[in-house]
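Lay summary. Proteins are chains of building blocks that fold into shapes, and those shapes determine what they do. In this project we predict the shape from the chain. Here is one chain we studied, written as its sequence of building blocks.
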Amino acid sequence: MLVLTEIPGAKPAPASSPGPSQVAFEVPSRPQLARFARHYRESHPDGDLRDHLVSESC
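And here is the predicted shape, written in a compact code that computers can read:
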């Protein structure tokens, strides 16, 4: 499980900073990755799955 929490009073990052763009979870096999991708596409039709040639991410 992933939990994101706000730090009260934290200053925004500068506009030039990369910021968070993805979260990666390791799966033990490509068949399990395929099952996750199918589930993700069905539950998040506007989501974005990408193959970065060295890893897959969403």
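What the prediction tells us: The two ends are 16 Å apart (CA to CA).
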